[in-house]
Design brief:
Shape of chain B: globular
Strand order of the largest sheet of chain B: 6-7-8-3-9-10
Number of strands of chain A: 2
Shape of chain A: globular
Number of helices of chain B: 9
Radius of gyration of chain B: 19 Å
Oligomer: heterodimer
Chain lengths: ~350, ~270
């Protein structure tokens, strides 16, 4: 190969990356408009676009009718929450896989999910039993707040366990995460054992995930917690590329390894904590999306992270359409849909391409 | 010939792990334009000393200065401009291409360079390491020797990108020829020497004693954590030292032309530890 051929190769790769980003961004926009139209009252995509344009341009004359209210007050916040949570989960997955240098890593590894699930169970079962009077007076929903705090607390505990002398051992964090997860699920199990039928039902549905409760209020709380991850991820991309060679090599390359680790874990814990708190446990997005992207455009994080964000957003919004339509007028928990679509698709990929991970 | 000023100097270095001293009282200078080769048996502390000098681990005692500054106070990115390190094994978790692996050398510290310049550096380094043909391949599909040459290309990239910031540089190679065939062994070591000739201080950990004496300007012999001899290769090695360090009976003769020592192991007979 001449260096001329190499230049062509690089230019070709860059073009593929650009096409992928632009193409997926457009697809994501289209899916968003379709998703806003779907539901108990079907609204044509053209009408959805018209309402959104009118709202954005401040043209109030066009903003009349029942469909406007449905779109602006119910559908838009729900789809935006789906975009945000999906992007957050997929990027968190890609970041965790990069940080742990392990293709099996998922956002749950930082301890957020197990901690959040335990705190949620505690809120449902114990809160109901002992604090029912007080909780009614709280200005916010106790369940998401509890889940968020539980997720952050377990991440913090893990981080402190794995950090010695200013260096965080990701291997220790992985093992401690498994232990802490097992402990948290034991306690969650104990709480489930203590709960009555209604509490058990609440707990089960929460753990299957749903975008059902979306509202503008919820969005304004969640967006500032998930957006930093999406806005700051370009700062992490180069560092994570370097970390692929190992921590020592990354250090030799001049990468601030400890800062990258701490920032990644913090951003992921916040984003996943907020996702779990508002939408429950939604599995598989953080595993399946980054792997799909790696298969199609390669593992370079500068491309992997933005494409994972778009892919995760599309997967979750798409899954939410299915969840709303398949048993209408009831709604399927979205966690069931993402796993039921994601797992077979992933298996099919594994069968087709055995070289997903190693070679 | 006047003694060149060292760009990197370690003074009285020690490092202790698990209560055992891995490196003790090691004093070593690396001079620009000089190829220093570090030899010693397994477990002699060669890699630990290398890790101390690259800043990867902090010494328990002693001080290291690079380009006149205390190593521990040099910021990471500036250190990356001052020195490049090729470690023994580099395994990748995900299928990066050869080009992507090599360009890691310029991605971090070469941000001030133009994209054209960065791409030119990577292409030149891949060509120099003889892996330009593999640029589009996945790193993990390569043989061990090819991977080692790609890592060498990455290190060349880093030196090239760092040169715009740091005029004097150090190159560390930890057993760089372990998986290479004879032809590539010699070509990598030749290249290391030509890098030294351009004014870089090169430190190589090697196991092949004959290659070590052939390629070293300065030979350093380690045993049990200590530097027990260092200097010009022809004057540093003798039968007694080699027998003591490597615990093998040797015949040491002189190659006719340059008068370098030539070592022929007699048999692998372990002697009981003293």
């Amino acid at each position: 190969m001449s260096s001329q051929a190499l230049t062509t190769l690089i230019a070709g790769r860059r073009r593929v990356g650009l096409v992928a980003v632009v193409g997926m961004a457009l697809a994501c926009l289209l899916l968003t408009i379709v998703a806003i139209g779907q539901g108990a009252i079907a609204i044509a995509p053209g009408r959805v676009a018209e309402i959104l344009m009118a709202k954005l341009s401040g043209n109030t004359a066009l903003l009349e009718g029942r469909d406007v209210l449905v779109v602006l007050n119910i559908r838009v916040p729900r789809v935006l929450l789906g975009l945000l949570v999906g992007a957050g989960l997929a990027v968190s997955g890609a970041l965790m896989q990069g940080l742990f240098r392990n293709p099996l890593a998922d956002p749950g590894l930082v301890g957020v999910s197990s901690g959040a699930a335990l705190a949620a169970a505690a809120t449902i079962v114990l809160g109901d039993r002992f604090l029912a009077g007080t909780m009614m007076k709280l200005p916010f929903a106790a369940l998401p707040a509890g889940a968020f705090c539980g997720g952050l607390a377990s991440t913090l505990a893990l981080y402190l366990i794995a950090t010695r002398g200013g260096r965080t051992s990701v291997a220790t964090m992985l093992l401690a995460g498994v232990a802490l997860g097992a402990f948290a699920s034991a306690l969650t199990g104990l709480l489930a054992f203590m709960s009555d039928d209604r509490q058990l039902r609440d707990l089960t549905f929460w753990s299957l995930g749903s975008l059902g409760g979306a509202s503008w209020t919820k969005l304004t709380v969640v967006a500032p917690i998930i957006l930093p991850l999406l806005l700051l991820m370009p700062l992490l991309a180069r560092g994570l590329n370097g970390l692929m060679l190992g921590e020592a090599e990354a250090y030799h390359l001049g990468i601030p390894v400890q800062r990258i680790k701490a920032l990644t874990i913090l951003l992921v814990a916040l984003a996943v904590g907020a996702s779990v708190a508002t939408a429950g446990l939604i599995g598989f997005v953080g595993i399946v999306v980054p792997h799909l992207i790696r298969l199609s455009v390669g593992p370079d994080h500068r491309l992997l992270l933005p494409l994972s964000a778009l892919g995760g957003a599309m997967l979750l919004v798409g899954a939410d359409i299915v969840a709303r339509l398949i048993v209408a007028p009831a709604e399927l928990p979205i966690g069931i849909v993402t796993a039921a679509i994601g797992a077979p698709f992933f298996l099919w990929l594994l069968l087709r391409r055995t070289s997903l991970i190693d070679v | 010939m006047s003694e060149p000023t060292p760009i990197l100097s370690g003074h009285d270095l020690s490092f202790i792990a698990g209560g055992r001293p891995l490196v003790a009282d090691a004093t070593l200078d690396l001079a620009c334009g000089t190829t220093t080769i570090l030899i010693g048996p397994n477990g002699a502390g060669k890699s630990t000393l290398l890790k101390l000098l690259t800043g990867e681990i902090k010494p328990a005692g002693g001080a290291i200065h690079i380009a006149g500054e205390n190593l521990s106070t040099v910021p990471g990115w500036r250190l990356a401009c001052l020195r490049a390190v090729m470690a023994q094994h580099a395994r990748l978790a995900f299928p990066f291409s050869v080009y992507e692996v090599a360009s890691l050398g310029v991605d971090g510290i070469g941000r001030a360079l133009t994209r054209q310049r960065r791409e030119a550096i990577v292409a030149e380094s891949l060509a120099a390491a003889g892996v330009l043909d593999l640029a589009g391949r996945r790193y993990q599909t390569l043989s061990g020797g090819e991977q080692q040459r790609v890592q060498f290309a990455r290190v060349l990239c880093q030196l090239d990108a760092g040169r715009s910031v740091a005029e004097k540089q150090v190159l560390f190679l930890d057993e760089p020829i372990a998986s290479l065939d004879l032809c590539h062994q010699l070509s990598l070591l030749d290249m290391a020497r030509s890098i030294a000739a351009r004014g870089v201080a090169v430190l190589i950990v090697l196991h092949d004693l004959n290659l070590a004496v052939t390629y070293a300007d300065h030979l350093v012999v380690m045993d049990q954590g200590r530097i027990i001899a260092q200097g010009e290769p022809a004057r540093t090695l003798d039968d007694a030292l080699l027998r003591q360090v490597f615990k093998v009976d040797l015949t040491l003769s002189r190659a006719p032309a340059p008068g370098l020592p030539f070592l022929l192991p007699q048999q692998h007979r372990s002697r009981p530890a003293a």
